Each structure stands twice: as C-alpha cells, then as structure tokens.
Task: structure prediction
Amino acid sequence: MNQPKNGTQNISSQFRKDMIMVPEVINEATGINVFGRTLKSFVFTTDVATILYCNADAVLAVYPFSPHPAIIQAVTSVASQPVFAGVGGGTTQGKRSVDIALFAEATGVQGVVVNAPMTAENILDIEHTVDSPIVATVVSAYNDIAARISAGADILNVSGGKDTAAIVRRIRRDFPHIPIIATGGQTDETIREVIKAGANAVSWTPPTPGDIFKEKMVKYRKERRAGFIEAHDGMTLNEFEEFIETHPEAEEKYHDEPEDGLL
Result:
C-alpha cells in the first residue's frame, strides 16, 4: 500500500507500478453519472494492454475502421472499466450499425458511440433497439446537434481539434443540460480549457505502446551500460576491448564477472 495522498489510501503492486495514469487535472471535471457511476476520464484507445494498465474511469473504444464485433468483444473482455464502443457513422450505417449496437450491448458495453456522419434517422433506429446510452460525436459547430439529441443521443462527444473548447461553449449555451465529453489534448492547460468551457468529462489519448517501449529501452540501455562500466573499473566496452588487447593477462579477472547477455 502506498502512502495516502489527499486523504485517499492508494493500493498498487509490483507489477502495476508502471500504470498509465490519466492527467490529474481531469478530476476537476464534474463527471457524467452513468448507471450510478461517475465518469470523468475516458481513455481513447482500443489497445487491450493500454486498457488493462490504465486508470481511466472508462474506455472510448472508437477507431478509424468499420466497427467489428470481434474488436468490441476483445476490448470488453479485458476492460475492468465501462466501455463505450463505436458502432459506426462513417463507412458503416443503417442496419449494420443497429446490429453492431445490439451486439455491443449484449457483450456488456456501457454505451454505444456513433460518429459524426451518422444521420439522425439512424440514431433513432439505434435508440429504438438498445437500452445503452448513445454517445453522438460532434466534430464541428455545423453538425445538427439538435437533431441528434432529438433522435436519442444521450451524451455528446466533442472532438473538434483546436476548436473543441469553442464548440463545447456553444453547445453548453444552447443545450445546458446535455452531458458532454470533449477531447482535452495533452496539456493541463488545454484539458482545463475544455472543462471550463462546459465539458463534464474528458477523453484522453494515451501514449502508444511503442512510445512507452522506447522509454523503457532507453532506461535498460543506460542501466546495462552503467553496470558494465562499474564492473570493469570504469571502462566502456570499447575501452575495455582496447585494454584487453594490451593486457591479455587481465582478461581472466573479468571473465568471472556475471553476464546477462546484454550490452
């Protein structure tokens, strides 16, 4: 158990010390209460390892391909937090989106997400089919937000790039009671900006496994180099090889040093 922070008792473990932690500033959001659980942070990913090792309140499982039941099943099988799964809107619309929404609900998702191009009529079909909350993505102030809400959208997911905060402010002005998730960017300042604009929750893009691996590899290389130098009287690998060429009798001294096969 870690030392308490702000009165909260923290539990961790040896194998979860490298958890992906969402920015603490997201806790300044009011949150969205979904089925009795308050959600403030949504991690935007479908990577199962990231989902398993992230402390976000929920998963926003949306990706730039046609939604597939196998992906929804894979995400829900590893997620301990509520999953909000994409069911179409761009390439995928009509009956297939309705069918995928029904499958997603059967798999255990907490909500279904429709992309910006989906028609209000299609949202209404999904509303008539599933009990899960519908999250409608808004990418521009020119989206017909009123039609989406009337068709059954329960939550708006604003992803407007640099205009996100402005879009959130406009929505909050026109629809003061609609729950809003908004992309917050990568800094505390941009996250706080969308919260102040009226977002109730924030979607956050985590570092990729490749980025995390890169950091770990740099750390491992530094540690191995430092260990080698310490075990070889301050010599680097090149210096050691040059030393052995001129002092071959000294090789036996270092031959017994434990090796792990890494340089």
About this structure: The first strand starts at residue 2 and ends at 5. The chain has two domains: 24-206, 210-253. The chain has a mean pLDDT of 91.
